TrEMBL record:
Domain of life: Bacteria
Residue stretches making up the HemY N-terminal domain: 26-130
Protein name: Heme biosynthesis protein HemY
Keyword Transmembrane helix: yes
UniProt topology in membrane: Multi-pass membrane protein
Keywords, alphabetical: Cell membrane, Membrane, Transmembrane, Transmembrane helix
Residue ranges of the TM segments: 45-66
Keyword flag Transmembrane: yes
Organism, as annotated: Ramlibacter cellulosilyticus
NCBIfam families per record: TPR_hemY_coli
Pfam families, alphabetized: HemY_N (PF07219)
One of the GO biological process terms: heme metabolic process
InterPro entries: Heme_biosyn_assoc_TPR_pro, HemY_N
Amino acid sequence: MRAALWLLVLFAVAVAGALFAGNNQGTVTLFWPPYRIDLSLNLVVLLLVASFFFVHAVMRALAALFDLPRQALRWRTQQKERSMYGALLEGLSHMLAGRYIRARKAGEAVLDQEASLTASGQKPANAAQLRAIAHVLAAESAHALQDRAAREEHLQQALEQASGRDAQETREGTLLRAARWALEDREPEAAMQHLQELPQGASRRTLALRTRLRASRQAGQTREALETARLLAKHHAFSPVAARSIVRGLAMDLLNGAYDVAQLQRAWAALEPAERVMPEVAIHAAQRLTSLRGEARVAREWLLPVWEKQAELNDALRVKLVCALEEGLDSLDASWLARVEAAQKANPRDATLQYLAGMACMKRQLWGKAQQLLTQAALGLQDAKLHRNAWRALAELAEQREDAQSAAIAWKRAAGE
């Protein structure tokens, strides 16, 4: 379309020129005493146009001639900048390839070239950010080479160069890298200090939270690690299975950190409701409470949500649940006894429930029922500990009946013979 319009314009100019010049009888007379020069008006117009273009071309040529030094300087600057950015890319490539000595030299070369450009008055764009990245590259390579002195020197210079607003993200990335280096050196306090320097928004990013989780676990700060793991789970930083496993492990570590009943109850209260109903956590809390000589009633309260879903548990967890309940059978109340009997009657072939019901009956001095249940359980139990306990209980019942032969057989089977 543009070509067609230009063609029409050229035709219009040609037609206008033909109409103007074809019948133009005008003349231009120049008097230069004693001479007189007569010129056609068309020739004068052509000479004026030619003179204009000639003067314009001469001025362009002179401007280009005088601009040559500036063009040469700009060309040299561009070459230096290309070399500088090429060295930066080369350093990154060497670092990714594990060639840390070359990567470090490339980072230092970038700094030298940038300093040369700045000294010559040709400061590159985003110079502070460029210097910070080059220092981080050199620091990363020094860290891989176990040169802590050089790493710290480059780290401090990188943080200084990235202190401006235009390099804020570079500073945040530098702090995250510094925290990771501290963790690899087994210095969680230094890592936490670097993380605390992050702005509030950056400190809630997934990478920062992952680093904080590692630092908290290394430092033994279980409560903070648990809070961080909860945030990561909410941000879907882990798969549901992995998030549950991490939170479960940290919750159990928090319970292990309690050394009396009051501390344990505070740790239990610090857990979220979803964490308290985790079978592993509830069972571990109950066992921990029993080992600290806490009230068995409180332990059973903690175990109640797990007991209500005991049919959904695997065999290992059901055995642990039974062991945790067994430790408080001396103070088992009527409601819990009814729960145990109801569960055993609902699953009459479940050896684990038979064992628990039999031990409960034995504590209540219901000898006949206890012997019946424990005899059935002893024949079907797969867990070695419960199997041994069942035969030991049968041996004690036989001794109460003064049945020496049955007691001897039961003791032998309890001993694994």
